[in-house]
Design brief:
25% strand; 10-stranded antiparallel sheet; 343 residues; alpha+beta; single chain
Length: 343
C-alpha cells in the first residue's frame, strides 16, 4: 500500500501552461535538490529532495549516561516534494490541474506558502465519503474543528468506531470544520481510508505511472458538490480570493500591526499540535542569537512578544505585506528542532 498526501495548486497559478515547476517551491528551501522534469503517459512531474544530514540526537547523551555501552545511531530523514501536472488530452490545457505530493516530515514545507487551494482536501474527502447516491451513514472516524473568537480554540474528536457527523456535536453556526477522516463509499476506488483538510490523503495500491490518473480522479472528486447535501454549511466561511479585497485586507492588517492595534488579532498555530512533542517556538528573527541554545525560544505564541521583537530590531515601522510573509515561526520538538513552519 502507498500512503499519499497531496495539495492542489491554486488554479490562478497553475493555469499558465508555461509556468515553471520551481514557482511552487518555497524560495527559502535552497538546500533542496531537484530531479526532472520527467514526462509519463499522461503527466509531467518534477521532484525536490531535501536531505537531512545525520546528527546526534540531543536525548542520546541522557541515555548513554546510564548505559555507557549503548550505541545510538545518528538520525537523518529526507523529505520530498513532488509536483505533478496531469493532462486529460494529448496536450496539457489551461483547465488541467497541478498537484503537489509531499513526503517526509518537511515535505509540505518545501511547498511555497499560499500557492495551494485552502480546504481542497476537505471537500474532496467529503465528496468521496458522501456521494449523492450514498449521502448518509456511518462514514466518519474523526474531525478537527476550530472556534474563532478572542482566542482561537481548536478541537479534535475521534470516535471509537465509524459514525455519523451529528455524533461529534459540532456547532454549525459557530465552529469551522477544518479536517475529516473516514471511510470512502467506494473502497475499491479510494482505499479504506481518506483524510481531507487543505490536503487530501489516501492509502491504496498505486504504481508511479498511475499518478496522472490519480490526480485526475482526485480533481474530479473535488469538482463535485455532493458534500452540500449534508455539509453545505462549511461554505459559510471561506478564504478571501478576490484580489482587490485580499489586497485591502492585507494592507489593513499590516497597518494595524504597525500601529499596534491588536484587538481581535491573534497569533496561533495553523493546525492542532502534539504538545507531547512540541515544547516551544522560535521566531525567525530570534534564531541564532544565543550560541548555547541556537537562539531565543518561546514557550507560548503571543502576538505582543512578536510585535516587541520586531520593534526592537527596527522591523516594525517598515513592515509590509511582503516582509510579513517572509517571517517564520518554527515549532521545536522536545528532543530536536523540526523545520515545520507553524505560523
Amino acid at each position: 500500500m502507498t500512503s499519499l498526501t497531496c495539495f492542489r495548486i491554486r488554479s490562478d497559478l497553475s493555469s499558465g501552461i508555461g509556468a515553471d515547476f520551481d514557482d511552487y517551491v518555497d524560495p527559502d528551501q535552497r538546500g533542496a535538490t531537484s530531479f526532472g522534469p520527467i514526462r509519463a503517459r499522461n503527466f509531467t512531474a518534477k521532484a525536490y529532495v531535501l536531505p537531512t544530514h545525520p546528527h546526534r540526537l540531543p536525548w542520546a547523551d541522557f541515555v548513554t549516561s546510564g548505559f555507557a555501552d549503548a550505541v545510538i545511531d545518528t538520525a537523518g530523514s529526507p523529505s520530498v516534494l513532488l509536483i505533478v501536472r496531469p493532462r486529460r488530452g494529448r496536450r496539457r490545457s489551461r483547465s488541467d490541474p497541478t498537484f503537489a505530493f509531499t513526503f517526509g516530515s518537511s515535505g509540505r514545507h518545501l511547498l511555497r506558502s499560499n500557492c495551494y487551494e485552502r480546504g481542497f482536501g476537505l471537500k474532496a474527502a467529503l465528496n468521496v465519503m458522501y456521494p449523492r447516491q450514498f449521502t448518509y451513514g456511518s462514514r466518519l472516524r474523526s474531525i478537527d474543528s476550530k472556534q474563532r473568537g478572542p482566542m482561537i480554540m481548536r478541537k479534535r474528536q475521534q470516535a471509537s468506531s465509524v459514525t455519523g457527523f451529528d455524533t461529534f456535536g459540532v456547532n454549525r453556526l459557530r465552529d469551522v470544520l477544518s479536517k475529516a477522516s473516514g471511510i470512502p463509499a467506494d473502497v475499491n476506488a479510494w482505499g479504506k481510508s481518506v483524510t481531507g483538510a487543505d490536503s487530501f490523503s489516501l492509502e491504496r495500491e498505486l504504481a508511479f505511472r498511475e499518478l496522472g490518473d490519480l490526480c485526475l480522479q482526485i480533481d474530479a472528486a473535488f469538482a463535485l458538490d455532493d458534500y452540500k447535501e449534508q455539509f453545505d454549511w462549511i461554505d459559510y466561511i471561506q478564504p478571501v480570493t478576490d484580489p482587490d479585497l485580499l489586497s485591502q485586507l492585507r494592507e489593513l492588517l499590516v497597518e494595524r500591526l504597525r500601529s499596534q492595534e491588536l484587538v481581535d488579532i491573534d497569533l496561533a498555530p495553523p493546525e492542532i499540535l502534539d504538545w507531547e512533542h512540541v515544547s516551544r517556538f522560535q521566531y525567525s528573527f530570534e534564531r541564532g542569537h544565543n550560541p548555547t541554545s541556537g537562539g531565543v525560544v518561546r514557550f507560548d505564541l503571543r502576538l505582543d512578544d512578536w510585535i516587541v521583537g520586531l520593534r526592537s530590531r527596527n522591523l516594525l515601522a517598515d513592515l509590509t505585506h511582503t516582509r510579513l510573509g517572509s517571517q517564520r515561526i518554527f515549532a521545536i520538538e522536545r528532543w530536536w528542532r523540526v523545520s515545520a513552519l507553524v505560523g
